[in-house]
């Protein structure tokens, strides 16, 4: 299975990051897509993914050659770089774009994200509302155009801005998209499905009857698994982990759609491979 949206660079994982990833692998998560929120976070993510993937490869080689005892496996980490709407900084977009281009040239990233629009009152209160909205709009448009140019998918955040986000991406001809933890109306999600978009389901959706109805309306061929770790876990106030993409998100989709866990795991894996193709 794939966890298509996780914040593994978050400081909440500093003390036990490897153990967290080992638990994810043990739960059936084979790939974790690491998303970033801005320039500094993107640089951390590049270094962390290279370090952990390299470490796993070395340990596997040592084990194969009989030089070390068996080690608990980690998921493969894949990388998305982008600027989150709550972290918008126009001064950073140029160096971040350069980093994305560099990593794309090396085939080191599978997408651009986390990007999007966030029109929650607390976010809009950072400045004059019109200024905040325009700033977010301009940054998302720039990253969407870059994604189209580089033929990369977008890993999209949309809060209180469902149809605005969908409309903007359409205007930019960005069709390779996953909306993570979408909070918009199902009718807008269904429009995006017709455009080929995917929707990733976090463990927190298990807490909401409204989200259960949302899952029933999105075809399985357009669903992905995510954790959004350390946020959006199945228990409010507790740190979330990528293992819950399998243990909770996959299980809940299966229950709601009347399918087996194996069917949902296989379908969402195929969907992730289609979206995040290299």
Would you write up a description of this structure?
47% of the residues are buried. By secondary structure, this protein is of the alpha/beta class. The protein has helices at residues 17-27, 39-64, 93-105, 121-124, 129-150, 162-171, 186-194, 209-217, 243-257, 261-275; strands at residues 2-6, 31-34, 76-81, 111-118, 154-159, 177-180, 198-201, 223-225. The longest helix has 26 residues, at 39-64.
Q: List segments where confidence is low: pLDDT < 50 over at least 5 consecutive residues.
A: none
**Count of separate DSSP helical elements:** 10
Specify the helix fraction band.
Answer: 40-55%
What is the H-and-E element order?
EHEHEHEHHEHEHEHEHH
- Look at the structure and give the mean pLDDT: 95
Largest sheet: 8 strands, parallel
In one word, what is the shape?
globular
Approximately what portion of the residues adopt beta-strand conformation?
5-15%
- Per DSSP E runs of 2 or more residues, the count of β-strands stands at 8
Separation of termini? 18 Å
Structural class computed from helices and strand pairing: alpha/beta
Radius of gyration: 18 Å
Q: Numbering strands along the chain, what is their spatial order in the largest sheet?
A: 1-2-3-4-5-6-7-8
Concise account of the structure shown:
The protein is α/β, with parallel strands linked by helices.
Attribute tags:
alpha/beta, eight-stranded parallel β-sheet, 8 strands, 14% strand, globular
Secondary-structure topology with pairs:
Elements: E1 2-6, H1 17-27, E2 31-34, H2 39-64, E3 76-81, H3 93-105, E4 111-118, H4 121-124, H5 129-150, E5 154-159, H6 162-171, E6 177-180, H7 186-194, E7 198-201, H8 209-217, E8 223-225, H9 243-257, H10 261-275
Helix pairs in contact: 1-9, 2-3, 3-5, 9-10
């Amino acid at each position: 299975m794939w966890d298509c949206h996780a914040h593994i660079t978050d400081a909440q994982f500093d003390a036990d990051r490897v153990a967290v990833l080992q638990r994810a692998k043990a739960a059936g998560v084979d790939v974790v897509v690491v998303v970033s929120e801005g320039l500094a976070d993107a640089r951390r993510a590049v270094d962390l993914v290279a370090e952990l993937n390299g470490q796993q490869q070395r340990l596997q080689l040592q084990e194969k050659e009989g030089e070390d005892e068996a080690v608990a496996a980690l998921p493969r980490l894949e990388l998305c770089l982008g600027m989150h709407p709550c972290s918008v900084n126009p001064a950073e977009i140029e160096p971040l774009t350069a980093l994305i281009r560099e990593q794309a040239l090396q085939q080191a990233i599978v997408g651009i994200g986390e990007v999007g629009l966030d029109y929650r009152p607390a976010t809009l209160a950072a400045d004059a509302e019109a200024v905040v909205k325009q700033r977010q709009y301009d940054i998302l448009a720039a990253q969407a155009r870059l994604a189209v140019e580089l033929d990369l998918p977008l890993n999209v955040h949309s809060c209180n801005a469902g149809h605005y986000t969908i409309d903007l991406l359409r205007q930019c001809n960005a069709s390779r998209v996953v909306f993570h933890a979408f909070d918009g109306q199902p009718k807008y999600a269904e429009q995006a499905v017709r455009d080929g978009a995917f929707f990733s389901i976090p463990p927190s959706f298990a807490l909401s009857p409204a989200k259960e109805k949302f899952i029933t309306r999105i075809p399985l061929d357009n669903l992905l698994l995510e954790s959004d770790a350390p946020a959006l876990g199945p228990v409010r106030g507790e740190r979330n982990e990528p293992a819950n993409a399998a243990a909770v998100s996959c299980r809940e989709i299966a229950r709601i759609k009347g399918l087996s866990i194996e069917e949902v795991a296989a379908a969402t894996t195929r969907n992730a491979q289609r979206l995040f193709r290299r």
